[in-house]
Amino acid sequence: MTPEAQEPALTVDELAARAGVTVRTVRFYSTRGLLPPPVIGPRRVGRYGPEHLSRLALIEELQTQGMTLSAIERYLDALPEDLSAHDLAIHRALVASWSPDPAREITREELEKRAGRELPDGDLERLAAMDVVRPAGAGYRVDPALLRLGVALLDVPIAYGTVLAARRVLLEHARGTAHELTALFRDEVWGPFREGEDDPERVESMKALSAHMQPLVVQALVTAFQRSLREELRAAFASEDSPGGT
Fold this sequence. Notes:
The chain is globular. α1 crosses α2, α1 packs across α6 (108-115) and α3 (50-64) packs parallel to α5 (85-95). The strands form two sheets. Strands 3-5-4 form a three-stranded antiparallel beta sheet. A two-stranded antiparallel ribbon has the order 1-2. The protein has 246 residues and is mainly alpha-helical. 64% of the residues lie in helices and 6% in strands.
């Protein structure tokens, strides 16, 4: 059974702690219909799952971007009803592309609450190696955008060195792509624009383009990577299954 197929297991207090919000906030969002109702378990206790956690993170990100609750309701209503926690996390990543979460300094107790598990020294060392957390005074400086991913990787049955090698590959190619796209934008868009920078209409057009470019680029990269990865995996397994495969 995959993690997203597991039965909801978080109480409202645990959900709030994992999401970094108050219980009152969770209940307020539920009242507004922004969060689906919990699954009612024994003793009439509501239980929440990964989808609730991802939806909470998306709501908080939309608010950070300046959207009103009414606008957030319209945004969420437009999403397919069967989106998984993973799908919602991708939406949040796209929304957050303009302003990633700043790193925060928190205590080890708060870090473990957000992680949803105890973090032995060995796990903390692995998270530090992945640049998710860094010791800071009596606590840790945490990158909220990477914490959930880092914690999930702790349980992946892949050698630690492989995880770090994969991270290096991703960073290297992400920086290369960003460099190439920036150069393209500078030469093909920004250069011609400067020649007509006294034209008010062109100025407004450039502002509008700048406001929408990064989210669109991020979405295009995510889509292209997902398709490429699927094709590469299909080709790799087809090679393994062929008579000449090893």
